[in-house]
Specification:
alpha+beta, Beta Polymerase, domain 2, 13% strand, 166 residues
Length: 166
Amino acid sequence: PWFVDREQHKESLHALRAATAAPTPEDTPKVLQDLHSQLIQSPHLEQSKLLVSRAIFRELGPFPPSRAPQGRRRRGGTYPGESAFDIPGSLWNWTVFAEVKEGTENKGAIEAVVRLVRKSLLAAQPPLPLPPNSKRRMQNGWAIIDGGDFVVHVLSKGVRERYFSD
């Protein structure tokens, strides 16, 4: 409106956004602090759902009982071998969750946030070695960016409610 100073209005909106986002932990790497400050400014994200945290370490469940393969073609055995999931801990040390605003996930919001994250990580000094960019649109409401030591999840509200509990 004509009676509101535009500069003052912009500053108050930015302060409101920053106040609703959860702060980063004190031991957060500088790359993730910079990424968090970039994501706070994104108009596509739900600011209250932006979260930077240490990875959650899950406990290993019981192994299935071993059964030897049978027959001429050696089928039916249950020994799966070793994998990365047998190592206790997590694949990443840090996790970033960014939820896009409801109703924007099918309108390119996820792709826009992925571009912002990749641009921010490639501009870091030294630049992080990121995997090649996928040119396909995210049809499932979930995008993941592997930063080596950390992972960034860009999610829709439905995916977050379905797969992640707070």
